[in-house]
Amino acid sequence: MMLPANHPPIAPPRIGVLLINLGTPDAADARAVKRYLREFLSDRRVVELPPLLWQPILRGIILNTRPKKSAHAYGQVWREDGSPLAAITAAQSRALHGAFGPGVTVDWAMRYGNPSIAERLATMKAAGCERILFAPLYPQYSGATTATANDKVFLALAGMRWQPAIRTLPPYHDDARYIAALKTTVEAGLAALDFTPDVILASFHGMPKRTLQLGDPYHCHCQKTARLLAEALDRPLTITFQSRFGPAKWLEPATDLTLAALPGQGMKRVAIVAPGFSADCLETLEELSIRGREQFLAAGGTDFAYLPCLNDSAAGIEMLREILGQELEGWPRPA
Question: What's this model's pTM, rounded to 2 decimal places?
Answer without folding.
Answer: 0.95
